[in-house]
Amino acid sequence: MRNVVVAQSGGPTAVINASLLGVIHACRSMPDRFGRVFAAQHGIEGFLSETLLDLSLQDEAELELLRTTPAAGAIGTCRYKLRPEATEDLDRILAVLAAHEVGAFFYIGGNDSMDTAQRVSDAARDRGLDLVCTGIPKTIDNDLGDDERVLIDHTPGYGSAARYWASLVLGLDEENRGSFPSDPVLVVQAMGRRIGYLAAAARLADPDRTMPLLILLPEANLSLEEIGEAVDRRLRRSGRVIVVASEGIGIGDLGARRDAFGHAAFGSSRGSVAQALVNVLNERGLPVRGAARGQIPGTDQRHAILCASPVDLEEAYEVGRHAVKIAARAGTGYMATITRVPGPAYRVAYAQAPLARMAASERRFPREWISEDRCDVTEAFVAYARPLIGEGYPRIPLERGLPRFARLRHESVRKRLPAYTPQAYREAGR
Question: How would you list the strands of the sheet with 213-216, edge to edge?
Fold first, then answer.
C-alpha cells in the first residue's frame, strides 16, 4: 500500500473537481493498493515547495461538494514549466514523493501537464523508483489528442464551456435584435489561443441557422479584409450580425504576453481581437446605419458551473475513477481517455493512451468541419458537439440562494525536507 498525490495545472474548468473526486473515490475503493490521498497545492509547484494537503483528513461533506465546485480554488493550479534541463526540480519532486511514501501520482491537465507527468514518470523509472504516473485530461479548448479523435474523442471541460457559449449566444441574439438600429454589429471574443473548438460551439445556439451569426476560427485563416467583406454581406442581407471570434485568429500584433510555456496570455495582453475587429469595422464603415461594438467574456467561460453540462460532469468524474484503475492495472505512463462508441445513440467508453503521445499532441479543429465561406461550421460539427452539452441542468447545492462550493482546509502535512526554490525562479532572481 502506497500513498497517492493528485494535482492539476493550467487553466481550470467547470468540471475539474469532479475528476479530483473520482480519483479520491476510486483510491478509497482499493484500500489494499492505495493509502492516504494527498493533493499537491498549486500543481507541480506544490511538489517543489512540499505543500501537500491530506485529503484523507478533510470533511466528507466538503469532499462531496467537489462534484459541483468549479475552477481551481479547491487545491490550486499553476503554470510552472518543468523544463528538460531542470534536473534539480525533478530531483526535488522525486525526493518529496519518496519522503511521503508516494507510489502513485495523478496529474489533471492538458498537453503541457501530460508532458510534465511523462517527465516525472521517466525520471522515476531512470532512478529505479516505484512510481506510477497517470494523466487525467482537462481543457476547455478540446485540443488534447489527435486530429482523427481516435486517442480521445473530447476532453472534460469542453462540453460545459461549449454549453456556456451556446447559452451566451442565445442571449446575445436577443440583445442584438433589440438594439441593432444603433449597434448592428456585435463582436464577441472566445477563448482559444490556436484552436477553434470553443468559438465553434456558438453554432449550437442556432442549429437551424436563423441567426445572423459569423464564426471566425484560427483554422479558417481569414484576413481582416475577408472578415470585413463577410460582415458587410451579412449586414446587407439581415441588417445586423453577431461575430464570434476566437482570440487566436491571428489578425496582427496584439501585444500578447506569454506564459512559461510560451502560450499567448490574451487576458493580460495589451490588445484584444474583439477590439481590433471593432476598430477595423468602424474605420472602414458599415453598409448600414450604426456602429460595431464588442465584448470579451472573462474566465466565466471556464468556471460557469450553472451552465455546466451534466454529461461533462459525469464524464469528468468517471475519467478520474478510470485513471486510478489504469494505475492499478497497467502501471505508469498512461492517460485516461474518453472514446465515443459508434451508433445512433451517444455513448462513451473509457480507455487509455500513452502519456508520451498525449504530451506531444495538439488537435486542430477539422478543416472539413469549416464551412465553404470559412465563416461558420458544418452540420458534422453540430452532430459531434451537441451530445456533449447534455439536457437539463446540474443540481448545484445552494446556501442563502447562492452556489455552495467545497471549502477544504488548507492545512499542509508536516514537511520533511529542507526548503527549496524552483530552478526557474532562482534563475529569474525571484
Answer: 213-216, 241-246, 185-190, 292-295
Listed residue (15, 10, 7) closest to 304, CA to CA = 15
Q: Which residue has the cell 471593432?
A: 278
Is this model's pTM higher than 0.70 or not? yes
The string of pLDDT tens digits covering residues 246-298 is 999 988 654 444 445 444 444 434 579 999 999 999 999 999 999 999 999 99
Alpha carbon distance 122, 133 (integer Å): 9
- Catalytic residue, candidates 141, 173, 232, 376: 141
Residue 154: which of 330, 326, 334, 387 has the closest Cα? 387
| pLDDT tens column, 110-123 | 999 999 999 999 99
Question: Which residue do the cell numbers 523508483 mark?
Answer: 129
Question: How many Å separate Cα 37 from the centre of its chain?
Answer: 24
DSSP label at 55?
Answer: G
List the grid coordinates of 386.
451537441
Judge whether 141 counts as a catalytic residue. Answer: yes
Cα–Cα distance, 194 to 217 (Å, whole number): 9
Give the angle 253-255-259 at the CA atoms, nearest 5°.
Answer: 120
Beta carbons within 10 angstroms of residue 170's beta carbon: 14
In this structure, are strands 241-246 and 185-190 parallel, antiparallel, or unpaired? parallel
Q: What is the pLDDT of residues 401-420, one digit of tens each?
A: 999 999 999 889 999 999 99
Give the C-alpha distances (Å, rounded to integers) separating 183 from 33, 241, 278: 62, 10, 11
